[in-house]
Structures are given as structure tokens and as C-alpha cells.
Amino acid sequence: MKDFTKQKRMGEIELNLNKFLNNKPLFYKRIDYDRMPNCWERIKNKFQMPKKIIHIIGTNGKGSTGRFLSYYLYKLGFKVGHYSSPHILKFNERIWINGKDISDKKLEEAHSFLQKILSKKEIETLSYFEYTTLLAMKSFENLDYVILEAGLGGEKDATAVFDKVMTLVTTIDFDHQNFLGDTIEEIAITKLNAIQKKAIIGKQIHNEVYQLSGKYPFYIDYFDNYEIKKIRDFINKNNFASYLADNLALALAFIVEENLKFDLKYLKGIELNGRLQQIEKNVYIDVGHNPLAAKAILKEFQNKKIDLIYNTYNDKNYKEILTILKPIINKLSIIEIQNDRIAPIDKVIKTAEELQIAVEKFEINKWKNSKKEKPQLIFGSFSVVEKFLNEK
Q1: What values do phi and psi take at 188, rounded to 5?
Q2: Which runs of E-coded beta strand occur in 170-211?
Q3: Could you tell me which residues are beta bridge partners of residue 285?
Q4: Domains of the chain
Q5: CB–CB of 38/151 below 8 Å?
Q6: pTM: predicted TM-score of the whole model, two decimal places
């Protein structure tokens, strides 16, 4: 189990890169989709590319699927990189190389490299995510495998500009409709258009995604019952959330496709931070933030009552999320987050009251002194989990 208490302020980026990134907005109402492809086309010859890039797209499960796959490949003896986002406590979590988060020194070296090859306009206009994607690709030079997790969508995402040998498709559901479309078909097409050569599709909850299969070079790869049982047994044995079994199966489907050895012993010791992770007795954190994640939480705590510490981004359907979770909520505490994207706390509380959910503002001292007789779940976004861990 990762010791978040000791980690809080360790491994911070040195001032140069830290200051640079802090001056870039994390979120945009409109995105220039031509900026990253044009920039990459101009500078790509200055990079020594990894041998194989695997792209992960979908709504939920990208981070855990990517970590399962990257860790497995690393334990097989390959040189491996994993790019994911956002981070919980420190930026370095986004760039994982050969079993550990990137060092501050290597980040600064990549930053210095980019500052030399990018134009002044590119340095000024590249988004936070676009710039950090380039940081990752510089850091991943000459690796055997690199797993890239899309940040938003697929086709127009910053991670889509690189040549990929495979795309893995996690569960697709409603999210980011203001950017991706209002129907499952629109959202799926926006994501699936990122596929270049071939893809493996994971478990889906909407038939529309499967119905699109004829338009893309992907296939549905289900393991036989024996292998699925082994996967689920591994998940249960290691006290992982049951929803992670589907993500592990998708990662292992790539292992089979590559004709590599299938043996779950290579996952021994893996950590999945923020995925219904128990950080102390009766206290769990989960970085999920949409209705699909809420449904997974509902399943994990079925027939139980939990104390939910929650907040949400303003563009999320928090009424639907709270409606889904209502059957298992004993008490709801709204944690205050200083973030332009976070929903106004009074609106979230009013929504909870309308749903007849017992709700209050979260107070860390009150929480520390409570008996915690029921499971405590901190849920709603990476920002919620980060704020809780920093206060804890």
C-alpha cells in the first residue's frame, strides 16, 4: 500500500518546470485541435521514438488498464513507459518508467529539451496537457513499449498524433458531452477514430459501441471461462475492486496478441493508487468522477451503507451520480475544493437535499475524531482525493 502521508511533498518538480506549468490553464472551454498535430509534425524528427506505442481510449478504466499492462510488460523484462493523467499528489505520477515515477532531474532535462526545440509561439500556446505529453515522449525515448492514456476523447487528443501499433478500448459511456457529443454513437466515434492499425475492445455497456465494429480494424477478445476465473481470482485475492477485472482482462488480451507469456505472477506487487484503494482501516479513496464510476461503486458496496466524502466538477451530472449512490449513502460530506472547475458547494448541497440525502460540509477535524464505524469513501475526482490526502 502506498504511504500517501510520507509522500505528500516529496518529489516535487524543480522550480523551472513547476513555475512554467503553473502558468498554463488546466482546462479550456474551447480547444485548438490543429495545434498539437502541427507542432508534432514540425518537431518529431528530433525525438528517438520507442519501439511500440499502445494507445488507450475509453471513458473509464484507462489508468488501471494502462498500469496493469505496463507493469506486466516491465516484469517480463521490457523497458516500459506509462503516461496517465491527471495525478493525485505529484506531477511525477503521470510519467512512469520501468517501475517508478519519473525523477525531477529527468523531468527538468525533458523540459529543457522542449524549450530549445519549440518556437516561442508553441511554448506560449501549447496546453498543459499537450506540453506534458511532449515531456512524456521525450522521457520515453528508445523504450520497448509505451502505453499512452488519452486525456479527452481519442481522435483529437494530444496522444493521438503518435504512430501506434495497437489501441485498447475501455468501456465507453457518457462524459465530456460538451466536447465529444450528446449520444453514445457520437462519443464512441470521436474516440474510435483514433485507431490507426488495429484495436482490442474491452467490455462495453452500450450495444452502439459493438455495432460500430465493422467500421474499425478491431476485434472483441474474450478469454475462455478458465482464464476469466483466474483473472477474477487474482483481483479478489489482492483485494482489488471487482470492476478492475475487466480492465485487467483487456490488458492481458494485448499480452496474448503479442504472443507473450500469460502468467499472473508477473503482476505480483502491483499498486493501483486511487482505484477504490484502502488507505487505512475502513477508509477508501477512488478517483472516479462520472455516472459509470458511481455504478461501479454502488456494486462494490451493495447491501452496505457508507459515509461519502464528495465533491464534483461543474460539468459533471452530479445529480445523476448522487441518485445512483443514494441507496448506499449513510451520510454525505461535501469537501471544499479551490478550483475554477469545481461545482459551487451550495449547489451540490442543495441537490443532495432535494434527493433527501443527509448532507453537511466536510470538516477534517470532526472527521479525524469520528469513530468511522461505517466505510468512509472519498470520491468524485482526482482533486477531491488530493485535497483529502493533503488535509489528512
Answers
A1: -65, -45
A2: 199-201
A3: 277, 378
A4: 4-267 (3.40.1190.10), 277-391 (3.90.190.20)
A5: no
A6: 0.92
